[in-house]
Design goal:
Layout lengths: L1 H11 L4 H13 L3 H14 L4 H13 L3 H14 L4 H13 L3 H14 L4 H13 L3 H14 L4 H13 L3 H13 L4 H15 L3
Helix pairs in contact: 1-2, 2-3, 2-4, 3-4, 4-5, 4-6, 5-6, 6-7, 6-8, 7-8, 8-9, 8-10, 9-10, 10-11, 11-12
């Protein structure tokens, strides 16, 4: 329905860049990535300074595995709007995918500086810090993410993994269960819970 109403809006006003960008976001949510990419590219063609469209395009390109292009899109979004916290965080995710962990850490920290309540940035930072071997800092970042958004399933799951590695099995179990309650992939949660129970000798 949302897709149809946005297509109708574009029919009525084909030169409205925001409508193309909004349609792109809906198509992405529907898993129609190629169509979503085209919609955001059309929005950018109509309004090249639309930072949001560049950032959204970057997210789609990442999902399509086009990491270098995705990086350029997020950098363009930041160039257009240096205070765009989500774009800094999204860029950090790409840099992590590319193995540039120090740069990725800086991008997430910049996102948090711009928006201290951006739960995803705290969560992403935690993931990077874990990969850098800074597990205590990683744990604090995931806890902060949960404080900012108590429904962020991936933060509970990531915290569970950190706690499991530290042999804090009871707390790890609690966090994996919280991840499951918040709609994390059930198979992943069940597997993680099983491993904790195995480590506890209860299985």
């Amino acid at each position: 329905e949302a897709e149809l109403s946005h297509r109708k809006a574009i029919e009525l006003n084909p030169h409205l860049a925001e409508a193309h960008s909004n349609l792109g976001s809906i198509l992405k949510d529907l898993g129609k990535l190629q169509e979503a990419e085209l919609s955001h590219r059309k929005a950018i063609e109509l309004k090249p300074d639309l930072a949001n469209a560049h950032s959204n395009l970057g997210n789609i390109l990442r999902d399509l595995g086009k990491l270098q292009e995705a990086e350029l899109s997020h950098r363009k979004a930041i160039e257009l709007n240096p205070h765009f916290a989500n774009a800094h965080s999204n860029l950090g995710n790409i840099l992590k995918d590319l193995g540039k962990l120090q740069e990725a850490e800086l991008s997430q920290r910049k996102a948090i500086e711009l928006n201290p309540h951006l739960a995803e940035a705290h969560c992403n930072l935690g993931s990077i810090l874990k990969d850098l071997g800074k597990s205590q800092e990683a744990e604090l970042s995931q806890r902060k993410a949960i404080e900012c958004n108590p429904n962020l399933a991936i933060a509970y799951f990531s915290l569970g993994n950190i706690l499991k590695a530290s042999a804090k099995f009871d707390e790890a179990l609690y966090n994996f269960k919280k991840a499951q309650q918040n709609k994390m992939d059930p198979k992943k949660c069940i597997a993680a819970i099983g491993k904790v129970l195995l480590n506890q000798g209860k299985h």
